[in-house]
């Protein structure tokens, strides 16, 4: 079965006919020629395929294109504006936060989504903490202030790096998080 | 991936009607588990009825003081919801202890409850598995079962249910609201998932084409003092070895009420009824907690490779209740 879908990808509108089995990742890479998001595990385990889907980071390998007709998608290739790299892209370069680079677009897009989530006051398993720390109970206001390194690691745990550049990824993200 | 038809409906009853006519069809929520299982050829639906945008994506306060969670609320939204965090912190903690930020953004509340076991043999179509192909045998009993069940197993299946959210919901006595070909019904969370018995292919009591539309949480004041603890091989982004969801109400050193559920130990979230009954009305303390945990786990029948889960579950329950006794500083 085929279906016609419309997407806005990195600011450009596209209309295409896809087999309903097509994932968002395959639609981007194979149909639209946007190879920014990478196919790592293709099972939602590695995060290399992370894109922003209507503003939220998701694994594009597990999203069927037909189910997200009309969506606004941003890949790492669409983060730069007017030829200027996104602050996270610059920070990754400055901190040497990659080796082979295969996971990097996913890492950067994930970090963009993650910082938005933290700004919106979304807790993480680290924020929720132990009951003796007050847990996440008893408070309904934003509880996320400055992100600790543990917070960044927990919130970015859906992005694997086989080169293990984590030691530089965390400070790169922290530089941007702390402005 | 095999071919399928993809349909959307404008109403929940329309979606139910579409699936009623397709015995091999399935509802599609966030797809984070179903699409993966379709890639692995474990799930082979010939029709997907997309309900992600059909059911409510809101968390609402009920007039009885409880809370209604729309089936389509994302795991992220639910975990961050102020009402949930304030009144049922263990529910938020359960969600945040599972999956990754990306997956939680896609996955829905109802879909979380209906995800399938992560038993490696269930996910590998080259091996026998009674849950995937009834009658072929269980590869796990003589194979790799370190992560699998110690309670309520059958000779046919030793799988565990992977949902952390379901464990917190079972402890809270939540109910799911459904709409199916035979109309609407309300199912207690403690009865939604089933033990494997001779039909391990059936994870839940839902009938074909029955759609979860909402999850209702009853008012439970002392759930504000609750905690979800997850024990796993990695600090983040891993399925459970053992989890405990617990809430306790202690007045003058006496347990007025308590709720305890285990995850990672059975084919369904395991409500610790025996432990709760032993604790209710008695003194609150480490010895009592240990005896209650041991009573609950007396029926455990671990396999050679997962006997460690019995003391792990006991200790996790004791530690979680002790931490709750100390309360927020």
TrEMBL record, chain A:
Q: Which InterPro entries match?
A: 2Fe-2S-bd (IPR002888), 2Fe-2S-bd_dom_sf (IPR036884), 2Fe-2S_ferredoxin-like_sf (IPR036010), 2Fe-2S_ferredoxin-type (IPR001041), 2Fe2S_fd_BS (IPR006058), Aldehyde_Oxdr_Iron-Sulfur (IPR052914), Beta-grasp_dom_sf (IPR012675)
Keyword Flavoprotein assigned: no
Q: What is this protein called?
A: (2Fe-2S)-binding protein
- Which CDD domains does the entry mention? fer2 (cd00207)
Keyword Signal in the entry? The reply is: no
Q: In which pathway does it act?
A: Alkaloid degradation; nicotine degradation
Going by the UniProt record, its keywords in alphabetical order are: 2Fe-2S, Iron, Iron-sulfur, Metal-binding, Oxidoreductase
Q: Name one Pfam family in it.
A: Fer2
Q: Where in the numbering of this chain does the 2Fe-2S ferredoxin-type domain appear?
A: 3-79
Give the residue ranges for region: Disordered: 125-146
The entry lists its GO molecular-function terms as: 2 iron, 2 sulfur cluster binding; metal ion binding; oxidoreductase activity, acting on the aldehyde or oxo group of donors
| PANTHER family according to UniProt | OXIDOREDUCTASE WITH IRON-SULFUR SUBUNIT, OXIDOREDUCTASE, IRON-SULPHUR BINDING SUBUNIT-RELATED-RELATED
Automatic annotation (TrEMBL), chain B:
Q: Does the keyword Coiled coil apply?
A: no
An example of a GO molecular function for this protein is: FAD binding
UniProt-listed Pfam families? CO_deh_flav_C (PF03450), FAD_binding_5 (PF00941)
Keyword Oxidoreductase set for record: yes
Q: Provide the FAD-binding PCMH-type domain boundaries.
A: 1-222
Recorded hits in SMART domains, A to Z, give: CO_deh_flav_C (SM01092)
Coiled-coil zones: none
Q: Which domain of life is it from?
A: Bacteria
What keywords were assigned to this record?
Oxidoreductase
Q: What is this protein called?
A: Molybdopterin dehydrogenase
Protein's organism: Micromonospora acroterricola
